[in-house]
């Protein structure tokens, strides 16, 4: 079985450890999110040309997508609610096979984005409910 947050095999996963990134991520917002349920396990060896292509796609659309996400969930971090230094975050990271398309993106502040790293956490449903 694969960890739904980091994509590692469960016996190698450290997400449950007291000081894990995912716990620090949750701690910033005082809430938890249901794990992403993926139809298939994340890819671990995404070729560099695919990564380049997806980053280029993001750059091309970033202004438009940023505007649409801000209109949908507010111009704030989907995790902690901060309104500054927002970046587009891939819910499923490019390095895990995620694509640069609107339904795989959320707004996070720089610090939440840094902690999240290559974890797979979808904060958007929560933001929309508020
Ligand atoms: Zn994990
Ligand atoms: Zn944040």
Strand and helix order: HHEEHH
Bound molecules: zinc ion
Radius of gyration: 14 Å
End-to-end separation: 33 Å
Largest sheet: 2 strands, antiparallel
Which word captures the global form?
Answer: globular
Mean pLDDT: 91
Notable features of this structure?
4 helices, binds zinc ion, single chain, 130 residues, 8% strand, mainly alpha, two-stranded antiparallel sheet
Question: Please, could you describe this protein's structure?
Answer:
The chain is mostly helical. It contains four helices and two strands. Strands 1-2 form a two-stranded antiparallel sheet. The longest helix has 26 residues. Bound molecules: zinc ion (2 copies). One zinc ion (ZN) binds next to loops.
Strand and helix map with partners:
Elements lengths: L20 H9 L18 H26 L12 E5 L14 E5 H7 L7 H6 L1
Antiparallel strand pairs: 1-2
Bound molecules: zinc ion (2 copies).
One zinc ion binds next to loops.
Summary?
With 130 residues, the protein is mainly alpha-helical.
